[in-house]
Amino acid sequence: MMLLKSVTINEVRILQNSNNITLCVILRVGKACYLVVIILFLNNNSADANSAKQNKALITEAEVKLAFLYSFISFTDNRHSLYADLDHIGICIFGTLNSQEKEVYNNEEAKVIYNKNVIIYNNPYKINNCNLVYYLKNFNKNLDHALLSVKKGIITVGEIPFFIDKGGMVGFYKIRGKVRFKINSLASRNRGVLFNAKLLELGENT
To answer: Do residues 132 and 73 make contact, with C-beta atoms less than 8 angstroms apart?
Structure first.
């Protein structure tokens, strides 16, 4: 006899623009916890659909990582002190985007988190408007110096090997082609970012 595990929806964040709806859902299945990202596309143009199908593998990873970035901002317990006085929330990406990443990050219409538009900046000269800084794996500057220049209250995310060992908050990695993440909870607390306990359950915690 197959035993079915109970499934509980713990948290849901809904982010929408004119092109798509992103659902970030924290599920508990038995004793395990998962972050499920669902992207619903609203554009039914057949040419766009064919193009998306041809680039599915590469675009999907970029879209999933972007949805994770939205989730890291959404699942913060001290969001009022971090974002209440802002007119928008900035995601700053450092490194060289490949063509598929450009398609996702540069053409993304503004999502809304905490009633504020999210604006994506690619390699900004200054990080004054950044609330989350994301370092791509081809970031070729001194990472230690870059992290030291980030002010408190700014989330740092990277796909560089040993990113969280160098003091970053969240590090992406892949297992069997699936995007996963590790969270340095000590670094995040010390830098003034309090991630939701349910999010901490999802990532490999250090």
So the answer is: yes
Cα 93 to its chain centre, rounded Å, is: 11
DSSP 195: B
The conformational region for residue 170 under phi > 0 = left, psi -120 to 50 = alpha, else beta, is: beta
d(CA 51, CA 139): 28
Chain segment 86-119, per-residue pLDDT in tens: 999 999 999 999 888 888 888 777 788 888 999 9
Is residue 122 a contact partner of residue 93, using CB atoms and an 8 Å limit?
yes
> For residue 205, how many other CB atoms are within 10 A of its CB?
13
CA-to-CA distance for 134 and 156, rounded, in angstroms? 6
What's this model's pTM, rounded to 2 decimal places? 0.75
